[in-house]
Structure formats: C-alpha cells, structure tokens
Amino acid sequence: xxxxxxxxxxxxxxxxxxxxxxxxxxxxxxxxxxxxxxxxxxxxxxxxxxxxxxxxxxxxxxxxxxxxxxxxxxxxxxxxxxxxxxxxxxxxxxxxxxxxxxxxxxxxxxxxxxxxxxxxxxxxxxxxxxxxxxxxxxxxxxxxxxxxxxxxxxxxxxxxxxxxxxxxxxxxxxxxxxxxxxxxxxxxxxxxxxxxxxxxxxxxxxxxxxxxxxxxxxxxxxxxxxxxxxxxxxxxxxxxxxxxxxxxxxxxxxxxxxxxxxxxxxxxxxxxxxxxxxxxxxxxxxxxxxxxxxxxxxxxxxxxxxxxxxxxxxxxxxxxxxxx
Length: 324
Ligand code: TRP
Prior knowledge:
By secondary structure, the protein is α/β, with parallel strands linked by helices. 45% of the residues lie in helices and 19% in strands. The chain has helices at 2-22, 42-57, 76-88, 99-108, 147-157, 173-188, 204-212, 224-228, 230-240, 249-253, 264-279, 301-306, 313-318; strands at 31-37, 65-71, 93-97, 114-117, 138-142, 163-169, 192-198, 217-220, 244-246, 258-261, 290-291, 296-299, 320-321. The strands form 3 sheets. Strands 2-1-3-4-5-11 form a 6-stranded parallel β-sheet, sandwiched between helices. Strands 7-6-8-9 form a 4-stranded parallel β-sheet, with helices on both faces. A 3-stranded mixed β-sheet has the order 10-12-13. The chain is elongated, with a radius of gyration of 24 Å. It binds tryptophan. Residues 43-44, 98-99, 118-120, 143, 174, 222-224, 227, 247-248, 250-251, 264 line the site of tryptophan.
C-alpha cells in the first residue's frame, strides 16, 4: 500500500511538473516597468544604466521585472506616444529620466506611479507642489546643483574673467531655472552678464560663436539639448580660447572646461531605491523626492591646456579630471 501511494505521488508530481512546463513562457506575473528618457546623451545613459544595475542588486533584476526601455530621440511627440503605450500596457511603474520625460509621463497618467530621475526642479516643472510631500502619483530624484559654487570656481580658476555669457534652450525649464540662478549669483559677485537662448539644436553653433566674441567665459546649465551637442560648443570655446563652465560632469567630459556638480551614477542608484520602496507597497505620497548633497569639482585638463589655463595645484588635487 505504502509503495502504491508513493507511485501515485510520483505520478502526480510528474503530472504537475509537465503542467508547469506547459505554462506559456510569457512574462505574465512579472512586474512591468517602463523606463523612458528624452534622448541619448552621456549623463542620461549613465543614470539609466546605474538605475538598472541597482534594481538588480535590490532583487528587481530581469528575472522578476520586465523592463520596457524607450528613448524619444529628442522628440516631444515621441515621449507622448511612449508614455501612452506604457499606460495602455498597464505597466506597474514608469521611470522617467529628465524633466520633459517626467512631464510627459505625468500628463499620460494620474494613477500609475511615476518615479522620475534627474529632474532639476520638480516644483518649477509642475510635477509636485512640495518636494517633501508628493500629492500625486509622482516622486523621484532631483539633480539640483550648486550654481553658486560653479561661479566661485570660475573666480578661482579664471580670475581674469569679467563678463560671462549664459546660453540655454528656452523650452527646457530645467535649464532656464539653473541659468537664472547662475545669472543672479554672477551679478551678485560683480560679473557682467549676457544671456542668449536657442530654440533648437541647429541654432547652437551660431549662437555660441556670436556670444563667444562678446564674453570672457560661457556658462551652460543642465540643458539636455546642448548636452547632446556638447562637442560643438566645446569647439567654439577652444577656438575663442574661453572657458566653458557647465551644469554637469558629462558636459566637462565632452569637452567643456569645468563644473561643480553631482555624481549621476549615484543619482541613478538612488532612483532605484525610491522605486523599490514603492514596489514594496509604500504609497507614493509617503515617498519624498530626494536630492544629492554631495558635490564634486570636475575639470577637463585637455580643454584647460587648449585654452591656456593652468589649474592650481590645490584645486587639481581634489578635482576629478575628465575627458579623453
Ligand atoms: N536635469 C536634466 C533635466 O531636468 C536632465 C539631465 C541629467 C541633464 N543629466 C544631465 C541635462 C546632464 C544635461 C546634462 O531634464
């Protein structure tokens, strides 16, 4: 009898196992996360990679999560289409990298949790009214940066500069907010300022050439459009032998001169921790948006050399050197 039971058990077990292998190998049951960025540039790519790596470390790797990874190629209309598709697919969460992306995601859904990354000013971008208390389905990480420290770096590294030109893409609220702060800071420090905005990337070269003739240094904020074409701008700086201070380390890496800013890998990882909290059941309204409060100085020594600027030893010692 005992033997018979065990034979039956074995048969039953075998049947269930066959049953298992017959279940369709679709991703049913996996958590669905839509990840979207406005375009590809060095910094946004770093954020996405760091986010995905940290998700894996936190136990949300591809065995558990199906990530739909999308990029809008710089087109606002693509962003809308991508976010609507995520909503149609009923994803469990949208991870939106950069301001225009987060705005498109927020316009597409008011119930699917949206975790944004690297939104410079979530309040000005109208994603939240209070960074500490999300009142919608939206929270995430901000890459607000210390523009006052960039202006001080300008004074230290290039004391001969009297007039700074500010250049940004008018449609990017993240760039506008940062540039306006930087202008106020520069004027407080006694610099003369000049402001030029562009409406699209094709205007960059000419606008930069014109500005470079008029000023001793240029500052470009955290501007996605310009970041994507940073090499073009860097070339103008080198031609005119003027330093270009930037909003992000990636723009220094791509030929800008120097900045004080955040570490974007860290920001991507922090975004994963916010996603984890929400996936584990904390309501979005209880997950405040976060900023990074550790800043580093980044300098491109090749650019320094090309424009004839020597980096004082005490600054070189603590700065991170970037560029090929
Ligand atoms: N902060 C930008 C935004 O709000 C996105 C961004 C992240 C960025 N890293 C950057 C822009 C580097 C330019 C350069 O949209």
